[in-house]
Amino acid sequence: MRRRAMSDERRAMWMPHSSLIAHRSSLGLVTAAALMLALSACDSLPGRPTEAERPLRPSEVTDFGALYGENCAGCHGADGKLGAARPMNDPVYLALVGETRLAQIIASGVLGTPMPGFAPSAGGMLTEPQAVLIAKGMIAAWGQPDALAGVTPPAYSATGAGDAQRGAAVYAAACASCHGADGRGGEKGGSVVDGAYLGLVSDQALRTTVLCGRTDLGMPDWRGAAGGAPLSEQQVGDVVAWLVAQRPRFPGQPYGGQ
Length: 258
Ligand code: HEC
Ligand code: HEC
Prior knowledge:
Layout: H1 2-13, H2 17-40, H3 64-71, H4 73-76, H5 91-97, H6 99-108, H7 128-142, H8 164-174, H9 176-179, H10 195-200, H11 203-212, H12 233-245
The structure holds heme C (2 copies).
């Protein structure tokens, strides 16, 4: 009797049995759905890259080595030298041009030459702060704070018009020994009057070369090889004017040129 009463009690207790089962199974569904959601958002699924492995957008890169390597090394050389374009790994150049101007050139490029602008305003994919970061990075990596200590160099940008005729005399005295009497190349240097070359570079690039040389390839800066007198501001302007005067009017065209 007692037993029976108990089992009755128990039965009463379990009266909502079926509805509980239903409740339980819907709970199970919710749990399963939550689990699937959690799993689908989980980075540890095979083949899914972790946060650190995801490639950064160009505008998110803040490492100088990566920025220089991806955007500049192809033209200016892996370690900032021995590229087709002038070396950046040049303390005299970096000191002369300065950080502000460097960042400006990186952001805007040099119109009409292969030097691209990297800021969005110039069609590039880097931000203005990244241009500053690259300029600072180059100075930190390759600059020397005292590169121009005690020296008064000619200005980075031309301060007045040069005279091509006087420039011819400067060329004969300071350049012909390497680039040949007529500029078409000598034992120590190539042609500086090649139409295709002159058609590709800006006047400033020629001035920068006269100022800073190509130290990576053995061309000295405006102070010349050891012992020679440095070129004056005027002489730099004049020899650049002479180089510019050798540029064909229509570079790359077989006729109508110089
Ligand atoms: C496609 C080749 C190319 C790439 C890429 C390139 N440059 Fe240049 N760069 C040039 C050329 C060519 C010049 C010379 C332009 C001229 O004629 O004035 C130049 C000029 C410059 C100058 C000015 C030189 C001067 O006369 O004072 C700076 C500074 C410079 N580049 C820095 C950079 C940096 C930093 C990067 C990467 C963010 C870069 N360049 C990427 C080709 C390139
Ligand atoms: C000691 C030898 C030497 C002297 C002096 C010299 N150069 Fe050069 N120059 C070179 C070498 C080496 C190069 C590297 C390329 C080559 O072989 O022509 C070069 C490159 C150049 C370039 C091309 C730079 C580039 O890569 O865009 C120009 C322009 C140039 N020289 C002009 C001059 C002028 C102008 C003078 C005189 C003010 C001069 N050089 C004096 C050896 C010299």
